[in-house]
Amino acid sequence: MENNFKTNRRKYVIWIGIIAVAVIAVVLISLFLHFGNFPSSAIAATSLPSPTPTKDPSCIFIMYPSNFTINNWLTIEGKIKNNCGHLIHDVKLQVTIYDVAGKEIKSDWVYAETTNIPAGEESDFKFSMRVPYNSKKFSVELLDWYDWYEWK
Predict the structure, then answer these.
(1) What pLDDT does 109 receive?
(2) How far is CA 120 from the centre of its chain?
(3) Following DSSP, what letter does each residue of 71-89 receive, concatenated?
(4) DSSP states of the chain as a string?
(5) Per-residue pLDDT at 54
(6) Are 108 and 114 in contact, with CB atoms under 8 Å apart?
(7) Is the predicted pLDDT of residue 66 greater than 60, yes or no?
(8) Does the pLDDT at position 91 exceed 90?
(9) For 44-48, 55-59, 77-81, which range has the lowest pLDDT when averaged over its residues?
(10) What CATH number matches the domain at 57-151, 2.30.130.10, 2.60.40.1620, 3.30.160.40, 3.90.1640.10?
(11) N or C: less crowded end of the chain, CB within 10 Å?
């Protein structure tokens, strides 16, 4: 039994030694990388990711209302069209309700029914919200979306 204990103890000491050496090596390498001098060619070899193109909201057209009602409930049914030239997805629209004077009363958002909208294609959206009696106008605006290249 005592021999087995010595063997296990020896294994633990060896593993602790290996871990200690690895930790010391990582610390020394980190210090060298932080304070050491590198040739400029080593730094220049590191490439940065290419910039993501800026989103262009003018390429997404909101076509509404194909149908809407406004009493105590506002229901809007419409379409959006992708004229961006590439796939877009997760298109989010904001609906804002205004009173007679044009003051914003309430706003909420909705996603287009189709998650992935190929270039040149359309997607429906439907929005319903309870609105106050003095609601007279509404607007639908593009809030957010993702271009296909953002997920590469």
Answers:
(1) 92
(2) 23
(3) SSEEEEEEEEEE-SSS-EE
(4) -HHHHHHHHHHHHHHHHHHHHHHHHHHHHHHHHHHS---HHHHHTPPPPPPPPPP-GGGEEEEEEEEEEESSEEEEEEEEEE-SSS-EEEEEEEEEEEETTS-EEEEEEEE-S-SEE-TT-EEEEEEEEE--TTEEEEEEEEEEEEEGGGG-
(5) 53
(6) no
(7) no
(8) yes
(9) 44-48
(10) 2.60.40.1620
(11) N
Q: Mean of the per-residue pLDDT values for the chain?
A: 76
User: Over 70: is that where the pLDDT of 84 sits?
Assistant: yes
Q: Give the residue extent of every domain in the chain.
A: 2-44, 57-151
Whole-structure pTM value: 0.58
Burial category of 32 from C-beta neighbours within 10 Å (exposed 0-12, middle 13-18, buried 19 and up): exposed
Comparing 123 with 4, the larger pLDDT belongs to: 123
